[in-house]
Amino acid sequence: MLLNELLTSTMDGEYPESMRSLVGTPLPKFTKEQSDLVKGSYEFFGLNYYTAQYAAHTTKPTNAKPSVFTDSLANLTFENAGKPIGPRAASFWLYIYPRGIYELLVYTKNLQQPFNLHY
């Protein structure tokens, strides 16, 4: 999950090994000074939640330009076996799935670094 990779970089002062091995050289490296500056520097994380998608593992495409969409090795879709994740809203990418914010908060709470969640 991208959330974990981004939070880990600010908690630990470096990107997690899983992210470094997937992304490779396009991912910038922190200098020691940058790492020390970033590590534990957060005071607040805000989460915006709009919708959720089903995710299935996929292999890294050989001919695709590297991006956040290919680096995750996930095939994202709004349907599973032809059934949408929830009712579609006004935008083509927006489906109503209220349980998703709950699942996101539980996931965040259970990360290696504890958070005091206020909601």
Could you describe the 3D structure shown?
The structure is a single chain. The protein is an alpha+beta fold and 119 residues long. The chain has one domain. Helix content is 34%, strand content 10%. The chain contains 5 helices and 4 strands. It has helices spanning 2-12, 17-23, 32-38, 68-71, 99-109; strands spanning 54-57, 74-77, 79-80, 83-84. Strands 1-2 form a two-stranded antiparallel ribbon. A two-stranded antiparallel sheet has the order 3-4. Strand 3 (79-80) and strand 4 form a beta hairpin.
Order of helices and strands: HHHEHEEEH
Mean pLDDT: 83
Oligomer: single chain
Main sheet makeup: 2 strands, antiparallel
Record field, number of beta strands? 4
Strand content: 5-15%
Q: Strands of the largest sheet, in order across it?
A: 1-2
Rg from Cα: 17 Å
Q: What share of the residues lie within helices?
A: 25-40%
Q: Regions with pLDDT < 50 over 5+ consecutive residues?
A: none
Number of helices: 5
Distance between the termini: 22 Å
What overall form do the CA principal axes indicate? flat
Summed up, the domain count is 1
Structural class: alpha+beta
